[in-house]
Write a structure and sequence with these properties.
about 400 residues; alpha+beta; Collagenase (Catalytic Domain); 3 domains; six-stranded mixed sheet; four-stranded antiparallel sheet; 6 helices; flat; binds zinc ion
């Protein structure tokens, strides 16, 4: 073996060792599945990693990841679009507990070198960051896929930040940091704050660049062409200064760390005050982006199309039965009007009638068995976005053993 080959091998091995992030395998693999809703090519994959958690604190990290998921499940529109997300966890081991606070001269030996911002160099202290972002990316790479690498730091001082990587502390109400920072990462939403450091030193600034790319900021005050003009009522003054009715969508001055010359959609929003819901514009943006990772039936589980077959019918000793009509799993919602046929093979009594009702309880189809032993068929034109029910009325009481099984056909 030549000298060249030996030195190459040493470099290769040494490089690997230097870059290796210390992790704790979970159940024989390098990551844990927190929520899996589908393939990584279709879903938006969030990987939670931790910094400043020692081996003895991994259970705490695991619990905080569950609380972060709870936060998403509790905040609209994440709540109704959880089908968009796969959530993975990689357990990173730190030597010391906690992360750096440069302002207070506190420095910890944590695996991912996370710290709060340093106000003495113009950083907002609330913005948590890593001085070794490559290690964060390397840790997240242990998961099956990562669209967002979310670092939870083992520290209860309020803070978070989102850029290439996303960060949050684990303060008692860190749920709102999770939902806010993912607003940046998933929705590409801007902060709607009117200052950056916000210690009084940067109040009253004026926007000096062009139209911002973010969905929730604009400098365009023309109501016909401004970004969210379709959501602004004709009667709402522009600029908007009076919050009546509460939550009015307009052009509110201030946003993007600037007080003047730039506008946000509503007085309050998750992106300016993380305890508040998303404003209508941010909500719409987030919902559209998240929904794009879900199937029609994941988003509309109660749709006519999306019940699981076979549908179970419970027959009681009653003269009148009604139940919702299930859809067909194999029918894509490409055409909203379909002709449906329901067949009851075992309804054999003369005079048995069937009715289909729409959502308002109006009969839209009816049928009857004319001859003993014949199947009962009823057909109607249905919209898969609406719900229907079918009812059977018999001329004579049926025994409990009589158990009609409807068969549904879409044409
Ligand atoms: Zn907003």
């Amino acid at each position: 073996m030549s000298k060249f080959a030996i030195s190459f091998m040493l470099l290769f091995a040494g490089g690997n060792l230097l870059a290796q992030v210390d992790i704790q395998p979970q159940g024989g693999q390098n990551y844990a599945t927190v929520r899996c809703n589908g393939s990584t090519t279709q879903k938006y994959d969030i990987v939670f990693i931790g910094d400043g958690f020692r081996a003895s604190e991994q259970a705490l990290f695991n619990q905080k990841v569950e609380e972060a998921v709870d936060a998403l499940e509790a905040r609209s529109p994440y709540a109704e679009t959880m089908c968009a997300l796969n959530i993975w966890r990689v357990n990173v081991l730190s030597t010391e507990s906690g992360v750096d606070h440069p302002k207070d001269g506190i420095f910890k030996n944590s695996e991912l070198d996370c710290r709060y911002g340093n106000p003495s160099v113009g950083e907002a202290e609330r913005c948590i960051r890593s001085d070794s972002p490559a290690k964060c990316i390397e840790a997240a790479a242990y998961a099956p896929a990562s669209d967002a690498t979310f670092v939870l730091v083992n520290d209860t001082q309020w803070g978070g930040c989102a850029g290439t990587l996303v960060f949050s502390c684990i303060a008692s109400n860190f749920a709102q940091i999770i939902t806010h920072e993912l607003g940046h990462k998933i929705g590409f939403l801007a902060d709607e704050y009117t200052c950056y450091v916000c210690d009084g030193s940067d109040d009253g600034s004026t926007w000096s660049s062009g139209e911002p790319p973010d969905a929730n900021l604009t400098i365009n005050t023309n109501r016909a062409t401004t970004k969210w003009g379709d959501l602004i009522a004709a009667s709402t003054p522009i600029p908007t200064t009076v919050n009546t009715p509460a939550g009015v969508v307009g052009l509110w001055e201030g946003g993007g760390y600037t007080a003047l010359g730039v506008y946000r959609p509503q007085l309050t929003c998750q992106m300016i005050s993380s305890s508040q819901p998303f404003c209508a514009v941010c909500f719409r943006e987030m919902k559209a982006l998240l929904s794009s990772h879900c199937s029609y039936c994941e988003l509309n589980p109660l749709s006519f199309y999306c019940f699981d077959l076979p549908y179970e019918v419970h027959w009681w000793d009653r003269l009148r039965l009604r139940w919702p009509i299930p859809p067909c799993l194999s029918c894509p919602p490409d055409d909203l009007r379909k002709r449906w046929e329901i067949i009851f093979e075992q309804v054999v009594f003369e005079g048995t009638e069937a009715f289909v009702y729409d959502e308002k309880g109006v009969v839209i189809a009816e049928s009857a068995v004319r001859q003993r032993g014949q199947p009962l068929r009823i057909s109607f034109e249905g919209n898969p976005l609406k719900s229907y029910s079918v009812e059977i009325v018999t001329g004579a009481p049926q025994a409990k053993t009589f158990n009609p099984t409807p068969k549904y056909i879409v044409k």
